């Protein structure tokens, strides 16, 4: 039995789930999702990367779930033709996910790294992980309607079906008044966060 650590792009995952199911109180069991994707493997950890505390509350964590708050950055872009300014958000999750993947690869933390993202920004980290430890298998799982030729060219890919997502959802609950999510939150620096 191989050991696995999962790295989940929480922003894209939650956005897609809200688009599909349309529930404000939507919550996901990330450990259940990974266990459905890799049933023959031993789950060591699930690292969910999310840009804000309200999104973090949408993940129900167990003892193996770590929720990492990534710093959101805002960039104003000015059109060279018309001068119109547009704000673009960059939440830094790709950098945080890459750092986590590389740290775990350097310490040989698991046999398999499961990347739940189709973001091609993650490709340099996958390349680096494969150079650091060629024996550590990196695999990706794409959400329905997401794909990346760049990621597909690097690693084996599986599709997360709507049924797998549905089975990983938790019943509707009112969690807006809660002080703490189920999983421990860590900031980008690794220090614990309190949800208010």
Describe this structure in words.
The protein is an alpha/beta fold and 196 residues long. It has one domain: Rossmann fold (3-Layer(aba) Sandwich), CATH 3.40.50. The protein is 31% helix and 26% strand. The chain contains seven helices and nine strands, in the order βααβαβββαβαβαβαβ. The chain has helices spanning 10-21, 30-37, 53-56, 93-106, 123-132, 149-154, 162-167; strands at residues 3-9, 42-50, 65-69, 73-78, 85-90, 112-116, 137-142, 157-159, 184-186. Helix 4 (93-106) runs parallel beside helix 5. The chain is globular and about 60 Å long. The relative contact order is 0.21. It comes from Kutzneria chonburiensis. This is NYN domain-containing protein.
Q: Overall 3D geometry? A: globular
Elements, N to C (H/E): EHHEHEEEHEHEHEHE
Count of the separate structural domains: 1
Helical amount: 25-40%
CATH topology title: Rossmann fold
Describe the main β-sheet briefly: 7 strands, parallel
- Please identify the structural class as seen in this structure: alpha/beta
How much β-strand is present in the residues? 25-35%
Determine the N-to-C terminus distance: 40 Å
Reported CATH architecture: 3-Layer(aba) Sandwich
| Assembly level | single chain
The total strand number stands at: 9
Low-confidence stretches: 174-185, 191-196
Name of the level-1 CATH class? Alpha Beta
- Radius of gyration over alpha carbons? 17 Å
Count of helix runs: 7
> Could you tell me the mean pLDDT?
80
- The CATH homologous superfamily is termed 5'-nuclease
Identify the strand order in the major beta sheet.
Answer: 8-7-6-1-2-3-9
Protein name: NYN domain-containing protein
